[in-house]
Specification:
The chain is of the alpha+beta class and about 350 residues long. It is built from ten helices and ten strands. It has an eight-stranded antiparallel beta sheet. The protein has a two-stranded antiparallel ribbon with strand order 3-8. A hairpin with a 2-residue loop joins strand 4 and strand 5. It starts with a helix and ends with a strand.
């Protein structure tokens, strides 16, 4: 679930990191007396041709700062909206609007109404209002194969500081995102590896949004160095990972209720690294299988690296009655977590 979206977002953030580093390195070298060809006869760039009418070093830094914070935030915002679209597609394919509850139904119908009121605004001009009305009628009538119109729920009124992020997730029936993000292992690791400009995910996000708004709309007073700009990309990397796990947790919870996810085992012991013992029942598990690790406040995707049954390495096990199986799963899991397959 959502793996392709996460991979694309992380790759894009990594590209920003590489650009920041490359640009800073190039800027520091072009004016250095030591910048020359490595050896006589070696291919060498014509720096005058490359630089042309290059901006001065200060302006160059300002442009890099603005480009980095604007692009990094845009990648995060796009990621959030897209993963919520995917989640809403899952909901409409799994539940009627009535089954999603009166609160969700009310938010959705009010959102559709707001689209109709604001249909002349730029953001809604590409939408077919006839299709919007027809889809809404199908939804409120609990017809099969209805589609939720994402724009009815994904109206971001402000930049995605933590309060707005919580509001947007709540619109889609998801509560508790700030608590989840704050305690997620990727975010905790980000804040513990070294001193940061901020101390919490909420304050870090607020600060980046402020820099983004300044870069997009006003004069830049505080030009950040490459290390801090790269730090922002690592923060969004951790934030995206935590949000994927948050969405997957709720999706698996619902899928279990619907009978679309199967618990194949429960972790009973954990050893160093990524080795666990699980009590497996009525399941077949093979090396390279992907399993979701699901527990209270935790979910992650794992890949079976090896299997040990009665102290013998095997490629596949088929278990009927409850049996303890040793698994190397590539991630650190907790005792009591369930091993879940999603169909």
């Amino acid at each position: 679930m959502h793996t392709a979206l996460l991979d694309r977002s992380l790759e894009a953030l990594d590209a920003v990191r590489k650009h920041i580093s490359f640009s800073a390195n190039l800027r520091s070298q072009v004016g250095a007396a030591s910048f020359r060809c490595r050896a006589d006869g070696a291919p060498c760039f014509d720096m005058e041709h490359i630089l042309g009418d290059a901006a001065d070093a200060t302006s160059w830094r300002v442009i890099d700062h603005c480009a980095a914070v604007t692009r990094t935030y845009a990648l995060f915002e796009s990621f959030v909206l897209e993963i919520l679209r995917e989640y809403l597609t899952f909901l409409s394919g799994s539940y009627t609007l009535t089954e999603l509850g009166q609160e969700f139904k009310s938010k959705y119908t009010r959102g559709v109404g707001q689209i109709l009121i604001d249909q002349d605004k730029q953001r809604f001009r590409s939408l077919d209002m006839t299709s919007i009305i027809r889809a809404a009628a199908d939804a409120v009538s609990d017809r099969a194969n209805y589609q939720i119109q994402p724009e009815a729920l994904l109206r971001a009124e402000q930049n995605l500081r933590m309060t707005e992020l919580q509001r947007l997730f709540s619109q889609c029936g998801l509560s508790g995102v700030e608590q989840w993000v704050t305690s997620h292992s990727a975010v905790e690791e980000f804040f513990t590896t070294q001193s940061r400009l901020s101390e919490t995910a909420a304050s870090e996000l607020r600060q980046i949004v402020d820099y983004r708004n300044e870069a997009a709309h006003g004069d830049v007073d505080d030009v950040l160095g490459a290390d801090v700009l790269i730090e922002f990309t690592h923060f969004f990397d951790a934030l995206c990972r935590s949000i994927v796990d948050f969405i997957q947790y709720d999706t698996l919870r619902r899928a279990k209720e619907l009978g679309r996810a199967t618990v194949v085992g429960v972790i009973s012991e954990r050893f160093s690294g990524d080795i666990v013992v699980a009590k497996v029942t009525n399941a077949t598990i093979s090396v390279n299988d992907q399993l979701y690790i699901w527990g209270k406040g935790l979910t992650m995707l794992a890949e079976v690296k090896s299997i040990r049954l009665t102290d013998v390495e095997v490629e596949t096990v088929t278990i009927a009655a409850e049996t303890e199986v040793g698994l190397r799963i590539g991630v650190r899991a907790k005792v009591g977590c369930e091993l879940v397959t999603f169909t």
